[in-house]
Amino acid sequence: MLKHASGYLSDELIACYLAKFFFFFSYIRSLLTGLYPPSSGTIIVDGKDIRTELAAIRTELGVCPQYDVLFNTLTVREHLLLYGSVKAPGWTKEQLDEALEDVDLSQHQYKPVGALSGGMKRRLSIAISFIGNSKTVVLDEPTSGVDPCSRRSIWDVLLKYKAGCTLIFTTHHLDEAEVLSDRIAILQRGQLRCCGSPSYLRETYGQGHSLTLIKKVS
């Protein structure tokens, strides 16, 4: 899948991976979360080796998969309580209320998830991924299947959560990558072709096209 890919991401940074084929996104997420071990090399998360310290890494790692792992009969608040009891048993009521406020779901916290819109469900999934003050968060297509208005609200949530952690997300929306990312990595045929800030990539590769129109005077 991936061939000789390497890189470094610092704190308080949002990084985006772009690829033509969607299975690359899921594979990257699986590597970063330890679901699949790398066939060679390794991944270091906050100074810990994913091959030998996976359990310690997972206590500080948040994941938002492409498809919402939610239960229609449970309320928004019950989801945060459920996942919080597993990820961060010491999670307080104040932190739960703050998470609801951050994703603008306070007024919907007692609604069953089955009654929520697609955008609200995505915001809930994102809130779940940040439970326990995760230092590294991996988001697979965080705006998948939502309308443009919900996309913008999710962007605001991710930018708000940027402080104090590293966000790694995948998308096929170029505008989303440019708005959110401090670093963009582009993959092709399993290889990392380029990586840099949006401005660097635009200046280096974004030659664009020019259109000249000649008006004929009658």
From TrEMBL:
SUPFAM superfamilies: P-loop containing nucleoside triphosphate hydrolases. CDD domains: ABC_subfamily_A. PROSITE patterns: ABC_TRANSPORTER_1, ABC_TRANSPORTER_2. GO terms for cellular component: membrane. GO terms for molecular function: ABC-type transporter activity; ATP binding; ATP hydrolysis activity; lipid transporter activity. InterPro entries: ABC_transporter-like_ATP-bd, ABC_transporter-like_CS, ABCA, P-loop_NTPase. This is Uncharacterized protein. The lineage of its organism: Eukaryota, Metazoa, Chordata, Craniata, Vertebrata.
